[in-house]
Amino acid sequence: MNTISPNRIKDAITILETGNPFQIENLIFRLEKKKFLNFTGKDVLVVLAYTKYLELENLNKPQIISELEYIEKTFVQLKNTFDNFNTFCQHKSIEYILSYNYGMGAIGIATKKGNKIHYIYDKLT
Questions:
Q1: pLDDT at 12
Q2: Is residue 68 a contact partner of residue 18, using CB atoms and an 8 Å limit?
Q3: Which residues neighbour 88 within 8 Å (Cβ) at sequence distance 6 or greater?
Q4: Contact, 119 vs 69, CB < 8 A?
Q5: How far lies 107's CA from each of 16, 56, 77, in Å?
Q6: 81, 73 in Cβ contact below 8 A?
Q7: Is the whole-model pTM more than 0.85?
């Protein structure tokens, strides 16, 4: 977190508010606005990272849980380091996503929202 400038965080917030994704270190952020007709729900801040594993077949559930925890820990450190980012994240649901980048696209592996983990990729060992 020491290499991230406050201006980069400020730019991230501005870009996220326009509906575009933004990458900070190994995390990719996307803000999903929840509005239907005149009802406004809680916005969702999606925090995505790609697995460090080169072969999807080598992943198992304990490793996925560990990587999701790393994503969450890194996100919390970012919030604790930058007050404006912490303020931006307030009143938003946070969803962590672990994906596998195969070069021409990505495959969702698992998501974590609250304390619930949902496995997307069904060929896990």
A1: 95
A2: no
A3: 13, 16
A4: no
A5: 23, 9, 26
A6: no
A7: yes
Which two three-digit tokens encode residue 88? 């931006």
Distance CA 43, CA 33 (A): 5
Pair 113, 68: CB distance under 8 Å? no
The pLDDT score that the predictor gives to residue 125 is 47
Gap between the Cα atoms of 65 and 112, Å rounded = 9
Q: Is 91 in contact with 76 (CB distance < 8 Å)?
A: no
Return d(Cα 96, Cα 5) in angstroms, integer: 23
Please, what's the b/e burial string for 2-39 (b: 16 or more CB within 10 A of its CB; e: otherwise)?
A: eeeeeeebeebbeebeeeeebebeebbbbbeeeeeeee
What would the pLDDT profile of 18-46 be if each residue is shown by its tens digit?
989 999 989 999 999 876 656 667 889 99
Q: Would you state the pLDDT for residue 14? A: 95
